[in-house]
Amino acid sequence: MSSGVPADMINLRLILVSGKTKEFLFSPNDSAADIAKHVYDNWPMDWEEEQVSSPNILRLIYQGRFLHGNVTLGALKLPFGKTTVMHLVARETLPEPNSQGQRNREKTGESNCCVIL
C-alpha cells in the first residue's frame, strides 16, 4: 500500500489514541505545525468521532517524544520514500521539560524518562 511513496516525500502513518490510522504524504520541509494543520483541514471521514476543535491542539509524538511545532520532518532525519509511524493526540499544551522530572520523581524517585500511556 505504501510502496508508491515518492522518493522526495515522507509518508506519515498517523495513529490516534483510538487506534485508527491514516497515511499522509509530506515534504521534509513540513513542520509539526504544518502537519497538524494539514491533517485538521483534511480530517478523515472515519475519524469523525475524534474530530478536534482546532489544529493548535493536535500534537505529534515520534519515538515517545512530543514534537514542537517548528520541528521539520527533515530535521528528524526521517527516511525519504518510506513510511514513518507517529502518534497524533489532542493536547492543549506540551509538557515543560522541567515539570516532566518533577512528575516522574513523584512516581519512581529516579527516572527522568518520558512515559506515555
CATH architecture of the domain at 10-90: Roll
CATH-defined topology of the domain at 10-90: Ubiquitin-like (UB roll)
Task: Report the helical percentage.
Answer: 10-25%
Cα-to-Cα separation, first versus last residue: 29 Å
Which stretches are poorly predicted, pLDDT < 50 over at least 5 residues?
99-111
Report on the biggest sheet: 5 strands, mixed
CATH class of the domain at 10-90: Alpha Beta
User: Total number of helical segments?
Assistant: 2
Q: Which strand order do you get reading across the main beta sheet? A: 2-1-5-3-4
Rg over C-alpha atoms, rounded to the nearest angstrom? 15 Å
Tell me the β content: 15-25%
Shape label: globular
Order of helices and strands: EEHEEEH
**Helix-strand category:** alpha+beta
Could you report the average pLDDT, rounded to the nearest whole number? 85
Subcellular location: Cell membrane
Main location: membrane
Keywords: Cell membrane, Lipoprotein, Membrane, Methylation, Palmitate, Prenylation
Domain Ubiquitin-like: 10-88
